[in-house]
Amino acid sequence: MSITSADPSGRDHRPALLAVLDAVDRAPGAAALRARSYALLGVAAGTRLLDVGCGGGLAVAEAGALGAFAAGVDRDEEMIAAARGRHPGHAFAVADATALPYEDGAWDAYRADKVLHELPDPGAALAEAHRVLAPGGRAVITGQDWDAFVLDAEDGLLTRTIVHARADQVPGPRVVRRFRGLLLDHGFGEVTVEVTTAVLTDARWLPLATGLAEAAVRAGAVSSGQAAAWTADQAERAAANRFFLAVPVFTASGTRSR
Ligand SMILES: C[S@@+](CC[C@H](N)C(=O)[O-])C[C@H]1O[C@@H](n2cnc3c(N)ncnc32)[C@H](O)[C@@H]1O
Asked: Which atom number of ligand 1 is nearest to the Cα of residue 2?
């Protein structure tokens, strides 16, 4: 699960985004997914790992605890300030994924988690990943398909409209479908793709659903009356322990092969 540069209601609001990311980090299966990314990257003592779009810096701290020399970059100054505050002793810098301030071949491992959907040109980020990785270096990119949020709801057609309207508000809602091709196109071999579905049934996830409806109203895709009815249905489900949101999360890996 993840949110783009916006809170669940779709407004751009950094503290709210961090709070959502913190909640997502504690979601069922999230820790296992992060651990899987470190395994795919071959993180071990001394691995030089760069986490791009690092947000609050949790992955940098976790990789550091595994013995890596881990650093994080994010284009957002507030995110980097938060990461530095939360994880002192680790290296964090403000930088753009498409213009990394590192020498060619400086890193053994490159990680971008819930980031590429925010980029107008994800290929430019993959080109940078290839450049900053040493030959044989590993890349892992992960994220969810914004068109593929699966919600139980009374009105299935309205649900589809709401999900797609929210998806259309991120630059690359379906970029995960291109993960394999992006890696192959930018000089990576041994490319793999794995999918893990996050299943969220706890009532505390209700704001993710209601945020979708609010965003759909702002996009003009549904009326406020339609959104209110849909949100009421979701709230009833949550109150009755019948909330259901499933999100497939795609994790692709590759080795810098040339
Ligand atoms: C949804 S958050 C994910 C943060 C973190 N990777 C995580 O898993 O919690 C996306 C992050 O990517 C950052 N980001 C977006 N575009 C970026 C870019 N072009 N270069 C670097 N960071 C970027 C945002 O500022 C934000 O912190």
From this structure: 1
